[in-house]
Amino acid sequence: MDFNQSHSVKLNDGHFMPVLGFGTYASDDVPKSKVGEATKIAIDVGFRHIDAAYFYQNEEEVGKAIREKIADGTVKREDIFYTTKLWTTFFRPELVQQGLERSLKKLQLDYVDLFIIHVPFAMKPGEELLPKDANGQIILETVDICDIWEAMEKCKDAGLTKSIGVSNFNHKLLELILNKQGLKYKPVCNQVECHPYLNQSKLLEFCKSKDIVLVAYSALGTSRDPNWIDVNIPHLLEDPILKTIAKKHNRSPGQVALRYQLQRGVVVLAKSFSEKRIKENFQVFDFELTQEDMKAIEELNKNLRYIRLEFADGHPYYPFSEEY
């Protein structure tokens, strides 16, 4: 078993997902070329799981980076686990495959490894990523999530993606799909915000009971993009308890936050565009947190959500009004 297989989790459809992933979301002030460079560094360092999305608007650069690393012999296509996400303006059964094909075209790849529903609520279809009305309000729509899931299943059957999953779902939304008449494939994962201040322990327990992998985004806190985030929220990596545990292990608070997720059976995404940080984020397999460390980190939970998507509050599928 090679390194990547031993650091992977088996999904409920039989495919394997590396437990540590490289995130590619960048705020508008980061040049897109930088994302491509960082992706190449990440692959050189050892990352094999790349998490991306149509919405991030940088899949051309990420795809080019992957293809260059395949061309120079660093990796083969099958070594890379690539995730993209169905953006909410493609939430019509007849648009879902088109949404995926757009990503594939940008990437210049034949398939992705994982295709997930980015958020559970629909927006008005069209070319605008965030369609707004005359008052500047985002135009939301209600489309049956089960119809979208059926179209996701067809993308898997068509060989355009190996696995399908969801993101930003609570347990009730997951149950809508799990209890759907004629369900063909269960979601393999639920990608959600998850870090020591929002440890998602109830959702994690629920997902484990259904053989769905929890994938953590914003695992190191967040990029503090003022478009999405309340910038007055405390910095996770400045937490004194994380710092103390990090010091004890001669590690960084970021490495401790990532290791914490791995030890509780969560697949964790780490995002950075600095070479030093990318290397550091990969060095999480050669130390172990003690039970006391884990308990101390568990106690940092304050159900603090950095990303609230408040514009969709009130939508029937708004995911964050439930406890988990």
Automatic annotation (TrEMBL):
The active site is at Y56 (proton donor). It comes from Tupaia chinensis (Chinese tree shrew). PROSITE patterns: ALDOKETO_REDUCTASE_1, ALDOKETO_REDUCTASE_2, ALDOKETO_REDUCTASE_3. Substrate binds at H118. Keywords: NADP, Oxidoreductase. The record marks K85 as: Lowers pKa of active site Tyr. This is Prostaglandin-E(2) 9-reductase. GO terms for molecular function: oxidoreductase activity. Belongs to the aldo/keto reductase family. It comes from the Eukaryota. Residues 20-301 form the NADP-dependent oxidoreductase domain.
